[in-house]
Amino acid sequence: MGHRGESLLRFLKATTPSALGLIGVIILALPVRFFGGFAPTPILPLVVVFFWSIYGPNYLPSLSIFFIGLAQDLLTGGPPGLWAGVYLLTQFVVMSQRPYFIGREQQVVWLGFVFAAASAGLIVWLVMSLMAGVLLPVREHALQIAATIAIYPLIGSGFGRLHRRVIVEA
Amino acid sequence: MDYLGQDRREGLGRKANSRFVLLLLMLVSVILLLSSLYSAQASVFRKAREGVIDAASPVLEFFAGPIAAVQGLTGGIADYFDVLEQNQALRQENAELRQWMNEALELRKTIAAYEGLQSYQAPPKATPIDAFVIGESNDAFTRSMIVNAGRGRNVETGQAVVDDDGLVGRVVETGARAARVLLLTDVQSRVPVYVEDADLEGILVGKTRGRPAISFTASSEPQEVIPGQRVLTSGAGGVLPRGLPIGEIADEADDGIVVDLYSNYARTRMVRVINYEFPAVVAGDADVESDGAGADDADVDTANEAVAPETGG
Predict the structure, then answer these.
(1) How far is B33 from chain A (nearest CA, A)?
(2) Which residues contact B300 (CB under 8 A, 6 or more apart)?
(3) Which residues of B touch A157 (CB under 8 A)?
């Protein structure tokens, strides 16, 4: 493979986490309806942000996270800056705990994600309630956060394989 | 067990993640959030939203088709098992509708006779724009849909959106190819309505949960409503045309009169955007729709006249 091809490949690998985050945003806007009603769609970008903040912060720069969050805010019609701020805060907190998470078993990391997702959910609920002027119903939001937590082991192990075999390894 | 511990200085640049940039961007997010509190309709935000909707619409459109096909398939399987009951119900409904049709034909003749009178001025006709739902916010707090028609097809912000059952919501952002529809259930949704046969006007307020409620009524006295009465758009505010069916009164709760919507958002696939210009705007100068001058010389009912200047906003 030539030099050009190699650098293209490296660029593709480097941008994979950011692209996954954007795909997660698109999934949040697709008209998927199960059982004739609200489907708790997992918030995939949160998984992406959490995972790469631990295992490869250099692959997911803050600027990417900012734009992923902003895209989600604008596409789903929420207040701009909300999810961007929440994702950046997640990265900030998770990166400060990186030495603890690195090399730990996946169950421990998952427990970390439970805390991260729950806090993110709480912040979003508080801000949205503040902006609406009333305490918004929690049930569907809690279901969505629960769905995100529930898929983490599956998605996380998929990301793990992707990260080790494709992105980091040549 | 699964261990992960690699860390290499690669990725998007060597020092892709400095703490300073992270904190700076967090600050930017907070500032964005705070400024959107005070100026949610600022043109910068609106342009950004419209740009994002436009940019995402080809992707959404690409996936919306297959998703609908799969959902139609699963729905079809479910339908297969109660074909008999459905058939019976449809036959009964058909018989009732036939009676209505005869009545409507009679009425059409009567109305044509009245319209023949010289003093009659026909209200402006609404032109519907057909569109598919290509996206919706799968978010617990924001309730909106994205449809594949925008400015290119004369869709404008503020227009009503209906499906074959009733009002779905109204357009809040319009891109070139796609537009966002704020659903009646969104917590930000406020639609002026009236209750048929109850002499009650009010504002339908979204509650995020399934059913919105008429929260603010024109008179402060408690109003008598009967479950089953129809709720329609009142046309106050000069944005939505009068008389679009919304739903039926379900019951009265502490925070208002709960309304059962006619349209079922889980089934809404195709919608019509109603391009309707108010008589006041048509009669006056179309260019100065945002000042009150147009409303003075036109003969409009008081509800429209009072708030007609809002049209441009």
Answers:
(1) 5
(2) B278, B279, B280, B308
(3) 2
